[in-house]
Amino acid sequence: MEIVEELAKSIIALFIIVDPIGNLPIFVGLTSNMSREERRRTFQTAIIISFVLLNLFALAGQSILSIFNISIHSFKIAGGLLLLIISIKILVHGMWEEKHLSSRSISAVPIAFPLLVGPGAITLTIVNIQTVGMLVSMVSVMVVLFITWLILRAIEPINNFLGETGSVVISRLMAVFIAAIAIEFIASGVRFYALGERLPITY
After folding, report:
1. If you average pLDDT over every residue of the chain, what do you get?
2. Considering only CA atoms, which of 188, 194, 47, 141 is closest in space to residue 203?
């Protein structure tokens, strides 16, 4: 039961940070000149790239930290601050904005990175691998990206149903949850250094 609970927490946290529903208006705008089939191929490629990126960090997360001699607690604080900045930006603008677009590789940049797999998702994946283990981390990545793929396949009716106002409201609501996760990251790291307590991360 404990592993199921950890898996559920990881899935929910990663889904909130990836935020495919809140980013729907951006995805629609980026692919507005594409045919339906071309749009689907673009999203499918973006999901594959996102899967490779997240699993790369899941598998190499420990090595990356070791190479730079960074403790997981320092990474939690740094990642938490970064997540907090991202959430504030979304709350102010209503969405994550990326102005530098590449028309030739739009599925990789900016859809896969940084919209789906941004600093927040990377941070959470590296932290998860340290706190809940490889299996839970990789399964949560697969589940979240599969759900994201289903959402992107139904992007047109979902976007029409939500409307511009609904999309902005959901985006800002997700930003509040991202901010809460960020505070938990920071608090956990600070507690370790202040009290020497090896406390598990919570969401």
Report:
1. 81
2. 188
Instruction: Look up residue 128 and give its amino acid.
Output: N
pLDDT greater than 50 at residue 201: no
Positive or negative, the Cα torsion across 56, 60, 61, 64?
negative
pTM of the entire predicted model:
0.73
**CA diameter of the chain:** 57
Query: In the chain, what are the domain boundaries?
Result: 2-195
DSSP annotation of 126 reads H
Residues with Cβ within 8 Å of residue 97, at least 6 apart in sequence = 89
Exposed, middle or buried by CB within 10 Å (0-12, 13-18, 19+), for 198?
Answer: exposed
Q: Is pLDDT of 184 > 90?
A: no
Summarize pLDDT for 49-74 with one digit per residue, the tens: 999 989 888 888 778 778 888 777 88
> Is the Cα torsion angle 19, 20, 21, 27 positive or negative in sign?
positive
